[in-house]
Amino acid sequence: MTTAWSACAVAAIANNPMPVAPVIDPAACRPILPGFDLWDYWPVQERDGSTAEIADGALYMLLSAPILPDPDQRHAIARIRLMHQTADGWRDLGNLLPDGFSPGSREWSGSAIISDNHDRVTLYFTAAGHRGEVELSFDQRLFETTATLAVDDGVPRLFGWTTPAESVASDGKIYARDMAGGGEIGTIKAFRDPAWFCDPADGREYLIFAASLEQSSSPWNGAVGLAQREYGCWRLHVPIISAEGVNNELERPHVIYHHGRYYCFWSTQRKVFAQHGPAGPTGLYGMVARSLEGAWTPLNDTGLVFANPPSSPAQAYSWQVLPDLSVFSFVDKPGLTEEPADPAAARRHFVGTPAPLLRLVLDGNRAGLG
Fold first, then answer.
1. The domain 3-369 belongs to what CATH superfamily?
2. What is the DSSP string of 278-330?
3. What is the residue-wise DSSP string for 150-199?
4. What does pTM read for this prediction?
5. Per-residue pLDDT tens over the stretch 311-363
6. Helix (H) or strand (E) holding 8
7. What average pLDDT score do residues 60-66 get?
């Protein structure tokens, strides 16, 4: 069953009090890795979704790129970076995967799960493009690979990565294979951002991912895709949520289980809502259901969980909610009332570092910030 995120739900945002995140002060933002932009980060998680405790801290994977004159160009050279956070701060552990190891020309977002005895970590990630390509493409494929985890003198280390295996491929029937979508930011199609989830009801494993619908009459055809592991292989299911005719990109979707309900969250930006249709702000959105298959109900009747504040509409992005209802994201361009068109201006304002932690309050189909 696929649940539609409807234009009516989005239109209702304008008539409801809009929950907003606290304003981020640009002067208070400090890079945790000078010389690099960091965005889209995720923790190494236990099977229940909680953050794994590793060497008195937590391991995080972040997309990274050396600082470029135009921050939007970071996506063209993105690598996954490994960092260790403890009470003493952040420790940089370098690029996660060896050079030339990924099947893509760059590495995009995913998720990571630790084994029960904490000796192996499996990474699910997006290979964007193809290794060795001269002209960058927008092809997106879902891969997985596993490494051994060791701790040497309090420093975690991942090594011995297995050959990346394609988890599941777009079928070209339900899910779109042509990723270009015009090539401009906000038009690119999706088959990316795999988030691993274990259903506590039966222990079955799923991948939740950002997708685009193949059989759609609208250029705005974003969806939340689903694949289930059966007999050791992943099998595609129909999307759990569709934004056909409403929105082009439901990014970094993920599911948590809380008090007997399933909550699916995603991030999206105002600029990727359908032209001439209702548009919501850049923010965290979500739906709730009694089972993973749905039907799903928009949180707060609209789907909007919280937005960036109107005075700083691009201050943060790429939110992830953990089962303890903590929410993390990265600092984008705080302190601006609109996105700059000039790359030099964007560079001056783009921060590219982890944002302050937030916390949700969930009560059935109501959601807000604590």
1. Glycosyl hydrolase domain; family 43 (2.115.10.20)
2. --PPSEEEEEEESSTT---EEGGGTSEEEE--TTSTTSEEEEEE-TT-EEEEE
3. EEETTEEEEE-PPPPEEEE---SSSB-----TTSSTTT---EEEEEEEE-
4. 0.97
5. 999 999 999 999 999 999 999 999 999 989 899 999 999 999 999 999 999 99
6. helix 7-11
7. 98
